[in-house]
Design goal:
By secondary structure, the protein is an alpha+beta fold. It folds into two domains: 45-107, 2-Layer Sandwich (Trypsin Inhibitor V, Chain A); 113-208, Trypsin Inhibitor V, Chain A (2-Layer Sandwich), CATH 3.30.10. It is 35% helix and 27% strand. The strands form four sheets. It has a four-stranded mixed sheet, with helices on one face.
Amino acid sequence: MSNWALKFIKNPFVWNFLLMVLTGCALIYGTLAWLDHYTRHNEAVVVPDVKGLSMHEAKTFFDNTGLRYNVIDSVFSNDVKPGAIVEVVPEPGSKVKEGRIVFVTINALTAQMATIPEVADLSFRQAYALLRSLGFKNIEVKFVPGDYKDLAVGVERNALMINSGEKVPLTSTLTLIISNGEKEIDSLALDSLNMLPVESLDSDLEKWF
C-alpha cells in the first residue's frame, strides 16, 4: 500500500466523514422503519356491514376487526327495528387502518315527538304550513260545514280531536279540519273533498304562495 493510501486511511477527517455517512444512513433507515410500523404500512381492515344489527351485536364485529366505534346520532325509521344501526361511516366494505373510529347512527327506540300547535282560526294555508314546519309529513284534510271558508278548526288523530299542547309522534297521520264556508254541504261533494292526499295539497299550496 502506498504512503498516500496509508495517509488517507489514517486521516481522522476521513474516518469522521465515513462515520457521519453511516450514522445518517442508520438514522434514515430507522426512521423509515418506525414510520412503517407506526402507520401500519400495507395493513388495513375492512369495515364490517353491521347495518340492521344492535350495538351489542355489532360490538363483536368491531372487536374482531380491531376497530373502535362511536355513536354520534339517532334517527327514527320504520325500515329497521328500534335500536338498530342505520348508518356507518366509513361505509361498510371500506378499507381503513386498524384502530380507526367508526361513526355509527342508530334507530331511535321511539319516534320523535312534537307538540300540536293552536291552529284554530288560522287560515288553511297557515295551519298546514305550521304543521309541516314542525316536522309532520302525513297531513290529510277534512272539510266541514262552517261560517268561514278555508278557516282551520282543529287537528284530529285517529278520528279524535287533539288538544293544542299535546305531544304526538311526528310519524302520526294528522287530519286538519277546515271550514268550507257553508252551513251545509252535499255529502257526495264532502266525500270528494275530505282526506285529500298530501301531494294534492302541496300542489294547491304552490298556487297560493
